[in-house]
Specification:
Blueprint: E1 6-15, E2 18-27, E3 30-37, H1 42-62, E4 80-87, E5 93-94, H2 105-126, E6 130-135, E7 138-145, E8 148-155, H3 162-176
Antiparallel strand pairs: 1-2, 2-3, 4-5, 4-8, 6-7, 7-8
Protein name: FUZ/MON1/HPS1 first Longin domain-containing protein
């Protein structure tokens, strides 16, 4: 396993007033340059390089990976066009991509932003914990629970049970975040 994808090149060089071997080792997509005594054999260096390669691979596995996109369908049904979950205390945000509604993604985005801006203004001024706004073909519901703000944009297909659907989204997000 170690040194499996490795290319080695040794070049004699004169460094620090003495002859040395500059060993270039390509490990995966990295190149390592090591200076060793001119008479040293590569076999003396190989165990150290193998150990280094294993440690580098282990460290790469610990690096954060790009998260898969958050999908709306993981949290709610087809009547929900968009939602935004924000916990002001922990800083956690869940904002899945808007549901594409017959190629009208930009229209849904603008509607959500408009409702969101108006709701934030009303909630901020009046200390409201729940707010429902309607307009055109949308129903917008905003809930504040402690430090958590949840804004949801529904299609008008869902006229009853908005509070229940919003609670389900809230519960699904909290379960996903392990809270």
């Amino acid at each position: 396993r170690p040194m499996r994808s490795c290319a080695v090149r040794s070049i004699p060089v004169f460094v620090d007033n003495r002859a040395q071997s500059m060993v270039l080792v390509q490990i995966n997509s990295m190149t390592l340059c090591v200076f060793i005594h001119i008479t040293a054999a590569f076999s003396e260096l190989a165990p150290y390089l193998e150990h280094l390669e294993v440690n580098l691979e282990d460290d790469v596995y610990q690096l954060p990976k790009e998260e898969p996109p958050i999908l709306l369908r993981d949290f709610t049904g087809l009547d929900t066009l968009a939602f935004l979950y924000y916990d002001a205390k922990s800083g956690k945000v869940v904002a899945p991509s808007f549901r594409i509604d017959g190629g009208r993604n930009e229209v849904v985005s603008q509607a959500f932003r408009w409702f969101f801006a108006n709701a934030k203004t009303m909630v901020g001024r009046n200390s409201i914990s729940q707010l429902t706004l309607t307009g055109d073909e949308y129903i917008y519901h905003h809930v504040v629970k402690g430090s958590v703000h949840l804004s949801v944009l529904y299609s008008t297909v869902v006229e009853s049970g908005i509070a229940i659907l919003t609670q389900e989204i809230y519960d699904n997000v909290r379960r996903t975040l392990h809270e």
